[in-house]
Amino acid sequence: MECSHNKDCNNKDTICVSRVPIFNGLNWDETMEVANITEHMKFRKGEVIFLDGDRLDKLYIINEGRVKIYKISEDGKEQIIRILEPGDFMGELSLFKQTPSNSNAEALEATIVCVIEGKKIKDILYKNPGISIKITEELSNRLAKADNLIERLVLHDVESRVAHILLSMIGPDGNVNLTISKKDLASYIGMSQETLSRKLSHFQAMGLIKLVGQRQVSILDKEGLENMANY
């Protein structure tokens, strides 16, 4: 999809480019240059975007919806590595070389992804080195988060992991509003959905939290949760 070069242009490509942090700082003409090489792909909930081993040669940017990045162990267990929200990107290694994916990507809900061919965006990077720096910064952040995830999975027990994830998800109202299913949340912190449900019920019995429906957790004793998380 191409966009005409006038400032009234408001198509999805332009919106996608303008909302992505790595493209912050581009002027109008530069934004349009990126928009002109952008295409869209739509995915239904549960639809696979790419699989472990697929050769990636594109940069994928989440415009609407959410995507989970995950791996499957040899015994068939799923481990979610990260959840991508609008503005996040994946397939960034295609900017440097064509390489097989080492993970899977699946839409958690109806999702629109902006897609840019790696070889096309390289020209943009050469002219705007600031974008390369932002991509490097984001990759560094992901490595740090991956290290933290590995540490939690290896060094912390189940109760500590549940307490930690609840604390990290507390919103401005002091509660946790789950934006993903309990099954995916359990996968992210390395346990079964049944184990997660048991621990949440246990925390509720202890007076630390109150479960409200399927997607909300009221935090009643934050200090108690912090003790459980070994803060």
From TrEMBL:
SMART domains: cNMP, HTH_CRP. It holds the Pfam family cNMP_binding. Residues 156-223 form the HTH crp-type domain. InterPro entries: cNMP-bd_dom, Env_Response_Regulators, HTH_CRP. This is Crp/Fnr family transcriptional regulator. It comes from the Bacteria. It comes from Alkaliphilus flagellatus. Residues 22-142 form the Cyclic nucleotide-binding domain. CDD domains: CAP_ED (cd00038).
